[in-house]
Amino acid sequence: MQALLTEAFLTALIFGAVTAGVPLLLAGLGEQISEKAGVLNIGIEGMMLFGAYTGFVAAYYSGSFWLGFLFGGIGGMAVAAIVVLLCIRFGLNQIVIGIGVTLGFEGLTALLHFVQFSRTYPRLDQAPVWALPGLDQIPILGKALFSHSPIVYLAVLLVIGLGWLFRATYIGLNLESAGAKPAALDAAGVSVTATRAGAVLATGFLAGLGGAYMANVGAGLFVPFMTGGAGFIGIVLAMLARGNPIWVLMGAALFGISLAMTTALQVAGINIPTDVVQMLPFAMVMLVLVIFARHSVLPPALGLPYVRGDR
Predict the structure, then answer these.
(1) What is the pTM of this model?
(2) Angle ∠(223,22,258) on CA atoms, nearest 5
(3) According to DSSP H, which parts of 243-303 are helical?
(4) Handedness of CA 292, 31, 21, 45 (dihedral sign)
(5) pLDDT tens, position by position, 60-104
(6) Quick one: average pLDDT of 161-175?
(7) For domain 2-118+150-221+229-295, which architecture applies?
(8) Which of 11, 48, 187, 305 has minimal Cβ neighbours within 10 Å of its Cβ?
């Protein structure tokens, strides 16, 4: 038990929770944007995975982590464009298309990786770190919270920015109307199709960015199927957050701690079967759903295609 209270264990746990939680945070925030606009984006796992692949390849060949993050976001947007075309433009079932997108890009990224790298797994150099002066010297919390990739700080700022956008801008009002009363938004002269398309593309960029962070910073390499359900956890976070980005942040931190437990326990020298520890985040998902799912508030038009004139 004393091993769990050492500085090394606590630092490893909190640092790992941040590293594991940032992709969940970005995916959850992206999914929240889509769901506010009435689109249930089940394909977010595929967007994360393709973003991880394109982000890693861009960083590997260019030597620039910033280009890697940019191309990761663009890769996620490319997958999101498929969802926009099939679900928003043609009105096909969002759940079926989302599952198809995820399965398709799981196979595509595995194939592209094999064609490009065969059975090798090249690694990137360590990602650049921004240490916040003064704060990074705080015992335990300093190295764990204030010495990370710039994407971590941008993700936290994004939580604040989205909270303001949802509450105090016409963009936020349009997003909420597209998910709650799309016919009223259409009657006001705002395109429901354009609003939803923009939301899904934004979701794709954030999911792809989360995937690129996972590959370039969290792992330093790309492995097929490496997202391991992170996109689905992001969907759960968005559904339970009741439209509030702060709750997405708190949920990502909770699940990040569960995901980081494996490494932290190894640092502490505690021998627990890896499979048991890796089960924790998904057990946490089920527990949270059982406790909080009945109180979640979802947009009335979520998952429903909008056709002008339909009643």
Answers:
(1) 0.92
(2) 80
(3) 245-267, 274-278, 280-292
(4) positive
(5) 999 999 999 999 999 999 999 999 999 999 999 999 999 999 999
(6) 94
(7) Orthogonal Bundle (1.10)
(8) 187
